[in-house]
Backbone:
């Protein structure tokens, strides 16, 4: 090959390589941007459409309304101390646990084949009542708080990340629940209608308020308060022999809750989605790349990933809680819950400062065992327990 021919070929190949490189660079830059805009457009269209239909994506609007300092359960002075982590109050709560009563745990662990507790031995019942009496001021304060109408368990003075983590304070109410449940069981054994009725009323009112919070953890903890009340009612022998006014009071407490399990589950899911969407936005801002001192951007592929994740989770929620004609379903299907849960999950690369992952369960004050399916099943189970108890009491009334 002569030098002239070689010189004529090399520039041609070089041009081809340069052109291919330029084309590849354009594709690398344009295609991700195209994908980002495509998914952002789809997400924005979804968001605009459903917002026009009355769907809310604002966590603040999905919580119960503020009702003022004197009307909120969580604003009661004693409950506020629990929420603030007051060391003295927390130490008192630890001493309240009925496990501190000799023989209680052993007795409480035994039930008959139907899961109903045997009558509490008289000596144990006396010890439980004496133990509870030592904490009567705290129990009275909690009973007073449970009679307040406001069910908002967050104070709204923090960022949403701090606020949603803050709600975990309600797990500290467990000793109150346990002692009220033990008192009700002891009162049932001793035929003490005053203590029994007071304990049941407080348990069911607290359960109602916590479940009305529209926060998944509140629903889980509130269900625990109701379970303690249901255990005591099921343990009663010859309900018709108890005073009529007491039976009517129990019935009124059982009827506090008016939402169906599906309605309540939908409200919790909507709040979880709204907070999850906000979590993604704040986490993505943390991952933005600086361009100018006051301008940051996300790479196109990450923008596409975020928009697609928002859309998938939101579409799954609408499919889960709405029927084909757009009405709220009366019974939510497990496969739709599973599909929704599949999209509400950790997002790699969107961690917050100081956190290894941005798992929404961490930010919503939830723990790993609180899957949406388990919450749904718990709501159905509580309702299936409540209805027979209610019918039994009604059957004894004139």
Residues:
């Amino acid at each position: 090959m002569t030098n002239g021919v070689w010189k004529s070929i090399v520039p041609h190949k070089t041009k081809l390589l340069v052109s291919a490189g330029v084309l590849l660079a354009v594709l690398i830059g344009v295609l991700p941007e195209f994908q980002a805009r495509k998914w952002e457009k789809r997400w924005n269209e979804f968001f605009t459409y459903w917002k026009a239909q009355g769907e809310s994506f604002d966590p603040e609007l999905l919580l119960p309304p503020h009702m003022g300092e004197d009307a909120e359960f969580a604003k009661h002075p004693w409950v506020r101390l629990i929420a603030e982590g007051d060391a003295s109050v927390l130490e008192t709560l630890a001493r309240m646990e009925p496990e501190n009563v000799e023989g209680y745990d052993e007795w409480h662990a035994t039930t008959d084949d139907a899961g109903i507790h045997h009558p509490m031995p008289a000596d144990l019942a006396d010890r439980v009542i004496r133990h509870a009496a030592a904490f009567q001021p705290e129990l009275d304060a909690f009973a007073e708080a449970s009679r307040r109408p406001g069910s908002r368990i967050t104070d709204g003075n923090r960022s949403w990340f701090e606020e949603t983590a803050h709600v975990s304070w309600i797990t500290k109410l467990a000793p109150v629940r346990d002692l009220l449940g033990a008192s009700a069981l002891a009162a049932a054994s001793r035929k003490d209608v005053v203590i029994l009725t007071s304990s049941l009323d407080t348990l069911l009112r607290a359960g109602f308020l916590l479940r009305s919070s529209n926060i998944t953890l509140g629903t889980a903890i509130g269900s625990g308060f109701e379970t303690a009340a249901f255990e005591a009612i099921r343990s009663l022998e010859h309900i018709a022999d108890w005073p009529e006014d007491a039976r009517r009071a129990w019935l009124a407490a059982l009827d506090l809750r008016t939402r169906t399990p599906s309605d309540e589950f939908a409200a919790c899911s909507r709040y979880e989605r709204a907070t999850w969407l906000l979590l993604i936005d704040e986490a993505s801002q943390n991952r933005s790349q600086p361009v100018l001192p006051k301008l940051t951007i996300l790479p196109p592929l990450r923008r596409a990933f975020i928009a697609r994740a928002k859309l998938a989770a939101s579409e799954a929620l609408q499919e889960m809680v709405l029927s084909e004609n757009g009405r709220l379903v009366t019974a939510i299907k497990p496969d739709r819950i599973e599909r929704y849960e599949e999209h509400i999950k950790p997002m790699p690369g969107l961690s917050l400062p100081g956190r290894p992952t941005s798992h929404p369960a961490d930010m919503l004050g939830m723990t790993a065992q609180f899957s949406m399916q388990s919450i749904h099943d718990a709501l159905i189970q509580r309702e299936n327990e409540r209805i027979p108890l209610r019918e039994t009491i009604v059957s004894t009334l004139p």
Q: What stands out?
A: The beta strands are 289-292, 295-297. The chain has 16 helices and two strands. The longest strand covers residues 289-292. The CA atoms of residues 271 and 371 lie 15 Å apart.
